[in-house]
Structure formats: C-alpha cells, structure tokens
Amino acid sequence: MSDLFPPFAPDPDEPKRRLFKPIPLRLLVPNLITLLALCLGLTAIRLAIEERLELAIFAIAVAAVLDGLDGRVARLLKGTSRFGAELDSLSDFVNFGVAPPMLLYVFILHDMRSLGWIAALVFAIAAALRLARFNVMLDDPNRPEWQKQFFVGMAAPAGAVTVMLPLYLNFVGIPGGGLPAPVVGVYVVFIAFLMVSRIPTFSGKTFGSRVPRELVLPLFVLVVMFAALFVSFTFEVLAVSTLLYLGALPFGFMRYKALEKADRLEKSAVRANSPKAPPAADGSPPAV
C-alpha cells in the first residue's frame, strides 16, 4: 500500500496559484465613487433624523455630483460593467429615492401625519420604478441614437434635487418655504409623477464631449463662478437652479418632438427612395 501513496515534496520554486483572478484598478475606481455617494446618502438620512437638515441637503447634493461622475469616469477608463450599473441603481435609490422624502417628512410633511408619510412613500416608490425602467431601456438595441440625449421622465438625481425646493426656500429666509404642508405634499407627488411619466427631459450625457477651443476659457470662468456662488449662497443657487430646471422642461419636450418628427420624415424619405422589386413574369405582385 505504501507504493500507492508515495511521498511528495512540493517544488519551492513553483509560483503560488491565485484563488481569484485579479481585477483591474480601472474597474474598481467607478464603483468606489458610487460607494462614496452611497455613504453620503446614508449619512443624509442620519442627519435628517438628527434634524440637521442643512448638512443633509449638502450631502445629497454632493452625492448627485458623484453620481454624474461615476458613469463618466467608467466610460473614460473603459471600466463599465453590469455590476457597476446595478450598484449605481441601488445607490441611486437610497440617495435620491429615500433620503430626500425623509428630509421633507422631518421638515414639514409630518404635520400631515399619515398623509405626509404617504406622499413620502409615493416619491420613494416612483424613484424605484423610474430606476427599474431606466435599467430595462439600457438593454434596448433598437433605440435611436438621438434619443440618448433625453431621459424618459425626470431622472432620479434631478427629482431628488428638485423635490427639496421647499427646504431651499426655507433656508433662504422664507419661513416654512412659504408653503403649507398640504401644498408641499402635492408638490412631492407631482415630482414623483414626473419621474414615472413618459415626458422626455434633457439627459446632458452628450454635453461636454467636445468643447470648442474658443469656449474653453469662458467655460473655466463659469465653472469657477458657479462653484464660488454655490459655496457662498448654497440654498439660493439651489433654489434658482431648481426653478430654472422646472422652467426648461417644456423646451426639452418640444426639442424631443422636433427630433422625433425629423427622424420620422427621414425614415419615410428612405422608404420612398428605396428600390422596389420588379413584378413577376406573370404580372403578380412581388413577394414580400
């Protein structure tokens, strides 16, 4: 029996086998940005419970900036992955579907008791549905290229920043944001409707891919000016930006309809100019 199991001495120079395949750093960086945004969203919920609403708003605003960066960084580093897309959606639900209505409930919606909580729930559910629809549309291969300039419905980060308008107005100096609790509740439900609607809104994904040389320096000045204003007059900038965004929604809808009409006319022209098959010898129409 000793010949069946001879002694074996391992080769000391043999390289150690890895149990797992190493992951490139370029795949990890976008996910780390997403996790940092998730930490900010969870911290915003804690700050809301502690009624430190100003810091909670700032945390959500920074999370929205990081949410816009992680996808761009992933495409820049060629580190996009299905795992990253799913992680981003889960993070967005916490940051933009749960944290903002929690802030509003602590701020004023609790005055409506159960109705205020229902308004907060409606917003959270609308954010979840909107993110689920967005993930499904990513896999649509037949979507025209021009439609990538638009979101279907209001994006979750935009909905989160927009729905907190009563908070901005309050910190600007208007007590209670100038709005009673029932009006705030209706406003929250209205923003939730915009998120799950089919109304097209500008995505901004195609902006900034190419910048004309003569606009580089003015762009730097505008970015620095906006950052300085945001730091010095945070809630004023957020309130004005929200009102401008809401006012721009009809223009995005009209632009979408114009591009849709042009695309339909182009397809009709292509079909009209395409060569037709000759009729058969017996005079019967060509087979389709």
Automatic annotation (TrEMBL):
UniProt protein name: CDP-diacylglycerol--serine O-phosphatidyltransferase
Membrane topology, as annotated: Multi-pass membrane protein
Subcellular compartments: Endomembrane system
Chain segments carrying region Disordered: 269-288
Main EC class the enzyme belongs to: transferase
Entry similarity comment: Belongs to the CDP-alcohol phosphatidyltransferase class-I family.
Sorted UniProt keywords: Lipid biosynthesis, Lipid metabolism, Membrane, Phospholipid biosynthesis, Phospholipid metabolism, Transferase, Transmembrane, Transmembrane helix
UniProt keyword Secreted, yes or no: no
Domain CDP-alcohol phosphatidyltransferase C-terminal: 214-250
One GO term describing the cellular component: membrane
Origin species: Chelatococcus asaccharovorans
Upper lineage: Bacteria, Pseudomonadati, Pseudomonadota, Alphaproteobacteria, Hyphomicrobiales
E.C. number: 2.7.8.8
InterPro entries: CDP-alcohol_PTase-I, CDP-diaglyc--ser_O-PTrfase, CDP-OH_P_trans, CDP-OH_P_trans_C, CDP-OH_PTrfase_TM_dom, CDP_ALCOHOL_P_TRANSF_CS
Catalytic activity: a CDP-1,2-diacyl-sn-glycerol + L-serine = a 1,2-diacyl-sn-glycero-3-phospho-L-serine + CMP + H(+)
One GO term (biological process): phospholipid biosynthetic process
Molecular function as annotated in GO: CDP-diacylglycerol-serine O-phosphatidyltransferase activity
Transmembrane segments: 27-49, 55-73, 93-110, 116-138, 150-169, 181-199, 211-231
